[in-house]
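note to self — DONT lose this again. spent like an hour looking for the file last time. sequence + predicted structure for the chain T wanted, 251 res
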Amino acid sequence: MFMVERVPTGIPGLDDLLEGGLPKGRSVLVSGGCGTGKTIMSMQYLIKGALEHDEPGLYVTVDERADLIREDMLRFGWDIKALEDEGKLALLDLSSTRIGVPSMEQYYVEAHEFEPEKLLIKIMQTARSIGAKRFVLDSIPALGFHMESENKIREFILKLVYYLRQTGLTSILISELSEEGKELTKFSRFGVEEYVVDGVIVLRYTTMPLLEGTHRILFIRKMRATKHYEGMVPLKIDTDGIKLVPVDMDI
């Protein structure tokens, strides 16, 4: 029987829901509303990969300045700068160009490189330069704001997922969803992401039976080549990052 190789996520409790981790070399969409933990989860995936598995990671930041990401992650004890100096992590800055200011980062995208083809080349070149095994794009909606049309961003997503798969990167692509309503029918901003990726992990705020108030939860909408847990799992953010609250599972 063929067994798919797994990549540990570094998120306590998550690998137990995924037969040991993400399918190696595949792309997974992490989608959620504001404040649900998307950036923390994706950065934890890269940092734990670098520290515990010696797998370099590339983080493409479109939403937030790289210096602020480094500062924010220190609250979890994650020294991104140290990992960058060791060649185990790289931040590719798209945020500065997106708002029209010069970048002070080692890796950045210039204005003329924001065209889909040139941007793909830049991303792949940066990944190769550090020998990346893990990849994060944060986020697709922010990138879409800078492209001419939704057709352009859809074309970019299709090509990006193809190239990531060809180069063997195990990737997380971040998107957003509306928190309106209880039933979700769309899991991304542009309505194509969830169909071209191999997995979809959703983060939400919701109420849960037996628990008072509103809580962050995670559920796995799909994961190809994986028998996964299909229920909602409470998620906590503490001083060590993100972790899942144990549940009685029958996968």
